[in-house]
């Protein structure tokens, strides 16, 4: 049987919805992050969908389009269109997977990797500015908590 929240905590959440509703804060933080990062990426010629593809490929030589969609939280058809635009821009290349001919794999080109590096510098600046008063331990705990919530939501 799945764990349940403490029943006594629910009235507090419902009484002070904005302050106590964690998804309110998750949504607001994400919206603010996207807004700030978009402003930083625009001079590089990047939008958020292209950034998500670039950063999805950061630690992998090749990823399938569906894997990029999963990592980047974009819909598969959107990811496919973004990848096609990035191929035309010379930032990624594609190939058919040697293991599964049904899978299109994507990899960064040297130009795409240089763009990813420049964009990652901006993302790191946003990270540093956003977490200036947060200790490494607090950040680690935040990540662990968010991962637990994500895993729980996948079970629903």
Automatic annotation (TrEMBL):
Protein name, as recorded: Uncharacterized protein
GO-annotated molecular function: DNA binding; DNA-binding transcription factor activity
InterPro entries for this protein: HTH_MarR-typ, WH-like_DNA-bd_sf, WH_DNA-bd_sf
UniProt keyword annotations, A-Z: DNA-binding, Transcription, Transcription regulation
SUPFAM superfamilies given in the database record: Winged helix' DNA-binding domain
SMART domains in the record: HTH_MARR
Domain of life from the UniProt record: Bacteria
